[in-house]
Amino acid sequence: IHKKRMYAESYLGFGFTWIGDEDNQQPKCVVCNEVLANSCMKPSLLIRHQARKHPTLVGKSNQYFKNMQQPTVADHFNKSKRENQLYVEASYKISYNIAKSGKGHTIGETLVYPCIKDAVQTVLGDESVDKISNIPLSNSTVHRRIDDMSQAVELEVITRLQRSAGFVMQVDESTDVANLAILLVIVRYMNGTQPEENLLLCHPLEEHTKAADIFGAIDSYFSKHQIKWGKLDGVATDGAKSMSGRLGGFRALVAKVAPQAVWTHCCIHRQNLACSKMPANLREVLDESVKIINFIKAKSLNCRLFRKLCQDFEAPHDSLLLHTEVRWLSRGKALNRLFELHREVQFFLKDHPHPLADKFNDFDWLARLAYLADIFASINKLNLSLQNRNVTVFDVNDKIEAMIKKIVFWKDCLMQGRSEMFEQLHDFVHSKSKKLSNDLRDEIENHLCTLKVQFRKYFPEPNNLNDWISNPFEEQHFEHADLDISDKAVLIDLSTDTAAKRLLKEKPLLQFWAELPIDYQKLSAKAIRFLLPFTSTELVESAFSAYAYIKNKYRNRLNAASDIRLYLSNIVPDFAALANSIQGQGSH
Fold it and tell me: PANTHER family, from UniProt (predicted)?
């Protein structure tokens, strides 16, 4: 066992003190803070270190090196400043997570800090608790932190937008819990080879919500931040007159300053409009179904009794679903649940009289209900497929064309006396050992014809001029491509590029065009401009749902613009830079 060397006071004359414990002392240079092994604790090695690394200090007195050990006022100040910056940085990080959760700002003081305190005290002890108590997490502090981070994220979005070749946006306005009209604008742009969506503007419309007010708010924001209308390639809105009006709507006002921008009427809204028209008898069944559902759901006693009945009958569900017209999927789900529980509803209405109770003894009425449940289940499936944020115009066309073809196919099957395509209707009819009446079959055929006409009204048959964008390797697309001779020559080169063909299989369509080599840059630019526009307003409507969650009845005085930006954005602010930009203070 090697003998441990011990420190001697004379070693300070060589510029060394020691650290570690008494049993294993290690020499530490007071000049460069280098720590040596215990085996180096002897004058010859310490002198060699001083001569090699600090030759100008050879021969200095012990007092000189003793003074170097004493921290200066500046050292104390810098240490304190650094600690305060760390506290502020921690405050920013916690505030960021509060914003991402959509919770109230007071949660920092009332929940987050007590939880951290208990955890640190349990694991690390009271000394560490004293340190974290300096993290500022008051309501006002969290609010300021969120504002700071929101401004940083907004600036980054604007920078990326200005750097991009072009951008598109979806616009909508709605009223919040405080009856304040809120305008939301979400933009999409290419950040390198990646498409990005971010909230650009959350702005209150204090008076009217006319097209001029909406356009004025956006135009003012564009001017303030030097965003050019000339780079706008597309805008998506719903079908409201203030948005879609050809002469005085927001669409028309945008066309004056950005004639190159393509306007898109939200495909989900169009699909919903296409499905809203139905024959009188089917509409009557829908209305009566809603009344029956409301009778059971509106009263808490009826709701509890019906739940108990379903449990006793071992039904697949124990409650009905309310129908809300503004929710796209509500109609199909409510009708489907009512038909699944129609036996339980029939039994319930025997003990709880209702004017429509006899409808559950009517075969044709129940058959209509089963058909509505089936057809709206298919429509709901289509609706959900259109809500994906990565849906392209080609995807929309494919899904709508498939739906129209299925409607024609279902009508042909029905004319042949087949009903298997409507599963619940088919099972119900066979369970009763009956057949559909001619009148009922005519009603369903009429509804299917109406659906086909309405779908074609809102979704005109697509042309094939831009099909080369969906797959540039198909020869048939080359013939119809809306390109000049030079571009077609480049398309020929691309169609024979094996590496590009592999890339198309690996990447989403928009990203594929963005990652092509520079040789195809002109074609890529045209393809990206065609693919970039939104096909729906799904993102902005989801943003309004998030806004309603953040600014609820308990926080109805909140200006939620900063919170909603952080809540929606994937851009993470630079916490350290933000902390360094302000003066650190204690907890308050």
Answer: EPM2A-INTERACTING PROTEIN 1, LOW QUALITY PROTEIN: ZINC FINGER BED DOMAIN-CONTAINING PROTEIN 5-LIKE
What residue type is 398 in one-letter code?
D
Q: What percent of the chain has pLDDT over 70?
A: 95
Domain spans of the chain, in order of start = 9-69, 76-266+547-587, 274-458, 466-532
Stretch 214-240: mean pLDDT: 93
What is the distance in angstroms between the CA of the first residue and the CA of the last residue of the chain?
56
pLDDT category at 32 given cuts 50, 70, 90 is confident
Whole-model pTM: value is 0.80
CA angle 404-270-401, nearest 5°?
20
Residue 229 CA, distance from chain mean position: 25
CA 459, 464, 469, 474 dihedral sign is positive
Phi and psi, residue 237, nearest 5°: -140, 175
Q: Sheet with 194-205: list strands edge to edge.
A: 194-205, 181-191, 167-175, 232-237, 262-265
| Cα distance between residue 41 and residue 45, in whole Å | 7
Q: What does the mean pLDDT of the chain come to?
A: 89
